[in-house]
Amino acid sequence: MKIMAGRRGGRRNAGGRGNINLTQAELNALINERVEEVLAAREAARNQNLLNQGDEPFSYSPCIIITCFQFNTFNRYLTQLYSLHIPGANPNPPLCTFKMFLDCKPHSFSGTEGAVGLLRWIEKAESAFAMSNCRNEDRVKFAAGTFEGAALTWWNANVQNQGLDAANALPWDDFKRMLNREYCPRGEVQKLETEFWNHKMIGSEVEAYTARSYELANLCWKWQPHPSNI
């Protein structure tokens, strides 16, 4: 015998799949509610000796008929809705591709931008990594895909020396140190450090002074010599 179970709101009030928003607690409560309704209806029917009479379904509420198969399908449907509409709920986000990385608009790098340009390129690349869920093992490969001109020539020379797989397998921090050695000469960094220590506000340009102070502090900290570079 099929059991009729109540369903709040119905499809017409759901507003479409895109407008269904459930928290984990709400999802669990909804599933538990449906289970309890089905079990309660079955128990009530058993008590009234209706399960073996067989012709008419037991009317628990005037909505939809749920068999065991339908209930399992409904359960899976709710779980899928939860994974689609609750931020961060999907345990298996799509694998980041190079196109997805480029869609986050990382900067290109040609090697002529100096220390400031390199820092900004790295910061933008790391922001794109975060937005695209880029895997650690793909970071160097994707970032090198934005090289142009002299930087591309430099990277191709490294690939020839190390092999493509070994070059792409470099840890991101090691890759940044390579760029530091190549495109941030110590003399340029020292000039930035001198500017930082002597930086003063001119007139009432508070915003410009603050922005440049932050930039210089960030540069001088990031380009401190690493033990492996000395």
UniProtKB/TrEMBL annotation:
InterPro entries for this protein: Retrotrans_gag_dom
Domain of life: Eukaryota
Domain Retrotransposon gag: start-end pairs: 141-220
Pfam families reported for this sequence: Retrotrans_gag
The protein, known as: Retrotransposon gag domain-containing protein
Organism: Mikania micrantha (bitter vine)
